[in-house]
Specification:
The chain is mainly α and 74 residues long. It is 46% helix and 8% strand.
Length: 74
């Protein structure tokens, strides 16, 4: 898909393990490979927001260093 010009978005919660270990593993694999173009969230309730607030920003920042995230271009 990337070779065909598709851009990929990752749900930020996937990097935290919120959806499970396998999803976190795949999210890390995609980010480490530099395949993610955009970050988004799929927040639907206060408990998800509270969970995201507990995530250490430094951890997410380290994971995303290898990715040219384009959110600021939107």
């Amino acid at each position: 898909l990337k070779n065909a010009g598709c851009m990929l978005q990752l749900n930020l919660m996937s990097l935290t393990g919120y959806y499970g270990g396998k999803q976190k593993q795949i999210a890390n694999l995609l980010t480490n490979a530099g395949l993610i173009d955009y970050l988004g969230t799929d927040l639907h309730n206060k408990s998800q927001i509270d969970f995201l607030k507990k995530v250490k920003p430094k951890k997410i920042t380290e994971i995303l260093k290898k990715n040219p995230i384009k959110n600021s271009l939107l």
